[in-house]
């Protein structure tokens, strides 16, 4: 089946889809993005992702490229055209194309690119993954989902080279901020779920927010507070969350085995509860 992308109002063959060489996304990483997972034709947590897109755009003073309703329609249309029922939608909005100048252009129209891809979601959720820790070298507005992802590119590459799936970034005080493309969680020895609170230090994951809601509905005890690498080493369980990995157990951090080295009971329970959420409530 042919695969199309959507670029600035047009459906174009994916292989020929392009933006201008002076697009500010290319020149300055002056843009934002979202990744929305699609399961059995449903967009998981779509409104949460669009709300965060709205927030990211607002924080960078980039205008919406089109009406929000249009965006919802185009995502569905593109998924249909490309025959994607399980996979993901990638949305990117930049400040637009303009002669290279750091200052905002007076009259650029935002660039909108939407692509879809078939993918197996959360492929390691049943088996678990390894993570390594690395220093967090990012800027101070990690709450904005910008396409400026070089620290994460380097971090994920280092993880791969060290035989791990993800790298957990660590701040100057020794506390874990988050993964390069996921949020970080632990379960303490006495069974409390812990994840770092939303602030400028992390991206407030849409999956993270859904997991917190699911945990509250299940009556689970959780604490939103920073945790140190040493606390994570000693945790009963650890896992990571994102739109594409849902709840994925972490079995090793650096050279330490977490718990008994198998996916933990709470992680498995949260994965199942999240899957139920992704299949119905909160999805559309
Ligand atoms: N990454 N933290 C960072 C730095 C991220 O890049 C992501 C998502 C998350 C989790 O957010 P959410 O639950 O909304 O996916 C946390 C996406 C999946 C990516 O860049 O591919």
Write the layout of secondary structure elements.
Layout: E1 4-7, E2 10-13, H1 24-28, E3 31-39, E4 42-43, H2 46-60, H3 68-81, E5 87-94, E6 111-118, E7 129-135, H4 150-161, E8 166-170, E9 176-179, E10 183-187, E11 193-195, H5 206-217, E12 222-224, H6 229-233, E13 237-242, E14 246-253, E15 256-257, H7 265-279
Parallel strand pairs: 7-8, 7-14, 11-12
Antiparallel strand pairs: 1-2, 1-6, 3-4, 3-5, 5-6, 8-9, 10-11, 10-13, 13-14, 14-15
N-(5'-phosphopyridoxyl)-D-alanine (PDD) binds next to helix 5 and strand 13.
Would you kindly provide a written description of the structure presented here, covering whatever features stand out?
The protein is of the alpha+beta class and 284 residues long. Strands 7, 8, 9, 10, 11, 12, 13, 14 and 15 form a nine-stranded mixed β-sheet that branches. The site of N-(5'-phosphopyridoxyl)-D-alanine has 14 residues, from helix 5 and strand 13.
Quickly list its features.
globular, 7 helices, 27% helix, 284 residues, alpha+beta, binds N-(5'-phosphopyridoxyl)-D-alanine, six-stranded antiparallel beta sheet
Quick description:
Helix content is 27%, strand content 27%.
Largest sheet: 9 strands, mixed
The Cα radius of gyration reads 19 Å
- Measured by DSSP, the beta-strand proportion falls in 25-35%
Q: Please tell me the overall pLDDT.
A: 97
Summing up helix and strand content along with how strands pair, one would put the structural category as alpha+beta
Helix content: 25-40%
Order of helices and strands: EEHEEHHEEEHEEEEHEHEEEH
Number of helices: 7
Low-confidence stretches: none
For this structure, the quaternary state is single chain
Straight-line N-to-C gap: 25 Å
Describe the global form: globular
The counted number of beta strands is 15
């Amino acid at each position: 089946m042919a695969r199309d992308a959507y670029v600035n109002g047009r459906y174009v063959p994916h292989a020929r889809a392009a933006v201008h060489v002076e697009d500010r996304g290319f020149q300055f990483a002056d843009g934002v993005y979202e990744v929305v997972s699609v399961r059995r034709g449903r967009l998981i947590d779509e409104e949460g992702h669009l709300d965060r897109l709205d927030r990211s755009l607002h924080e960078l003073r980039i205008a919406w490229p089109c009406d929000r309703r249009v965006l919802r329609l185009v995502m569905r249309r593109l998924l249909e055209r490309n025959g994607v029922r399980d996979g993901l939608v990638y949305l990117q909005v930049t400040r637009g194309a303009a002669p290279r100048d750091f200052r905002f252009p007076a009259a650029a129209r935002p660039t909108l690119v939407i692509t879809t891809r078939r993918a197996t979601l959360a492929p390691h959720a049943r088996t678990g993954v390894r993570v390594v820790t690395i220093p967090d070298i990012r800027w101070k507005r990690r709450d904005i989902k910008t396409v400026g992802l070089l620290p994460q590119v380097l971090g994920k590459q280092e993880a791969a080279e060290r035989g791990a799936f993800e790298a957990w970034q660590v701040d100057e005080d020794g506390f874990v901020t988050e993964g390069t493309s996921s949020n970080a969680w632990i379960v303490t020895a006495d069974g409390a779920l812990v994840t770092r609170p939303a602030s400028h230090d992390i991206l407030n994951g849409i999956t993270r927010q859904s997991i917190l809601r699911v945990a509250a509905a299940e009556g689970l005890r959780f604490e939103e507070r920073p945790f140190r690498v040493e606390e994570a080493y000693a945790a009963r369980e650890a896992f990571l969350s994102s739109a594409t990995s849902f709840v994925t157990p972490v079995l090793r951090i650096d050279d330490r085995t977490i718990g008994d080295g198998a996916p933990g009971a709470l992680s498995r329970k949260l994965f199942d509860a999240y899957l139920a959420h992704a299949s119905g409530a909160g999805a559309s």
